[in-house]
Specification:
With 339 residues, the chain is mainly alpha-helical. It is built from 19 helices and no strands.
Amino acid sequence: MIPTEAFPNSMSVTAEFTSQALLDEQLRDAAGEGNLGLMQQWVARGANPKAVNPAARIQQTALCDAAAAKADSEECVKWLWPLSDPKHVSQWGSALHWALMGGNLAALRLLIPVCDASALDKEGQTALMKAVNLGSVEGVKLMIPASDLSERGGEKNEGRNALMLAVVSKNQNSGKIIALLAANMTDEELDAVDAEGCTALAAAVATAPGTGELNFTPLLGRANANIGAGEPNGAPLGIAVEFNILAAVQALIPFTELRRAPGVMSPVERAAKRGHWEIAETLAPVSPREDADRALAMANGKMPLWLARCEEEALRETVREHGASPHSRTAAKRPPRAL
């Protein structure tokens, strides 16, 4: 029987706690409370720091519990990890995952050199991906140097890397996290596609309507804006047109090929077909003339401002040809070119 006085501030200890399994359970409980003194006493009495409760679905060790502890996590982890198996992976991931879930960055720093950063949790995500989904900017900063940024995770991860997860996460820090990841990725990594053939840039544009923010600006100029979501009209600009996101269209125009591909509507035609007139008017001046003409034909007279600009352009062309004042009758007599 273990003397009760050996465990101050703890529950009464009776003979039932002498079994190994219960000793190990008490160690995990003490670790989860961040109680270093009690942890040390349970280990002195024979508790095994490497033990995993075979009856527990989560399968965590005392190190996992210590990493996620709300108090004194750093000291507990510092003392415990040399006695533990830091490579152990529970259903909720490695001790790195647990430190991130507990928000314990000091413990995370201690664990990064000894844990496997590529270990996956039950959702098929690495510790970096967990940091991304939690919106932990500091966690992402710490995990980037230890991680493979091209890692796609497990089957449940839908072929996404950490950047792809960041653009669809919709948490308040996603913009900062996207910028962090993009700055550390190669151009090839930025253009990677998930299981659906969607790039991070395309996914970011598609996510914008739900967030009200354009978080993809760190990708512009490096990510290829002419590939996207696994279909001809799935490039980022096409998605922005489809969702009627004017700010995204304006941001993407300088990086996108606007000429129509064979058998595919150009962005300006797509805008006209969807009745997104403000976007169509934005795209018309920068689109090839033949694409703009086709889009205008789809408008059926519903774009007076665009039509006025086209006529003004034709009038100015006439003025240039004849050297006349734009208000002269000579210039005004010439009809605008075909629209």
